[in-house]
Amino acid sequence: MQEIEIRKVKIPEGVTVKVEGKTVEVIGEKGRLVRDFSGHPVEIRIIGDEVEVSAVWPKRREKACVGTVAAHIRNMIRGATKGFTYKLKIVFAHFPISVKISGDKVLIENFMGERAPRVAKIVGNTKVTVKGDDIIVQGINIEEVSQTAANIEQATKIKDRDPRRFLDGIYIYEKMEGLAS
Questions:
Q1: Neighbouring residues of 157: CB distance < 8 A, sequence distance ≥ 6
Q2: For tag attachment on the chain, is the N or C end more exposed, with fewer CB atoms within 10 Å?
Q3: Is there a single domain that holds both residue 17 and residue 61?
Q4: In what order do the strands lie in the sheet with 105-109?
């Protein structure tokens, strides 16, 4: 008897999923996402209204890959239907921080009184807006949105000071599904 590890992802109404080899394309009301899973030892196919990710005679790594690829496909479907929003808060006690968006970079000026601005990269098709002391990061690809938010947070990391006293920085305080206005 053959041992098979299978994970199924339901395709909701209004979403189109195409599979060519190990390349998955998800089209929803918010946009289109394409991802190549050729580095994973899994088989992907559409059966009815479900995407099936499977591996035959899986070892531990292959079983883990089946779950990971299924989770990525689930995130692609959530992004194409709803999108993702991360909110960050600008916090300062010593020097007022000003944040500007310039092309594909976020410029953080006057952080801890530094003359040169700190720079965080905006990844992919992510939209970043600054409203008062909030920074809103939005997009349909969860990896790009979360990496952009992490880049902004890491750009204000304080070194060589007591973190209990110097709480200045930009911090993620809310992660949500859906594109907030």
A1: 169
A2: N
A3: yes
A4: 98-102, 105-109, 118-121
Q: Could you tell me if 68 and 92 lie in one domain?
A: no
pLDDT tens for 126-159 read 999 999 999 999 999 999 999 999 999 999 998 8
In this structure, the answer to whether residues 134 and 163 fall within a common structural domain is yes
Q: What is the mean pLDDT of the chain?
A: 93
Which structural domain, as residue segments, surrounds residue 15?
4-81
Closest CA to 31 of 71, 66, 83, 101: 83
The string of pLDDT tens digits covering residues 56-82 is 998 999 999 999 999 999 999 999 999
Identify the three-state secondary structure at position 114: coil
Considering 53, 81, 109, which residue would you say is the last residue of a domain? Answer: 81
State whether 73 and 19 are in the same domain. yes
pTM here is: 0.90
Beta strand segments in 79-141, E: 84-91, 98-102, 105-109, 118-121, 127-131, 134-139
Q: Which residues pair with 170 in a beta bridge?
A: 90
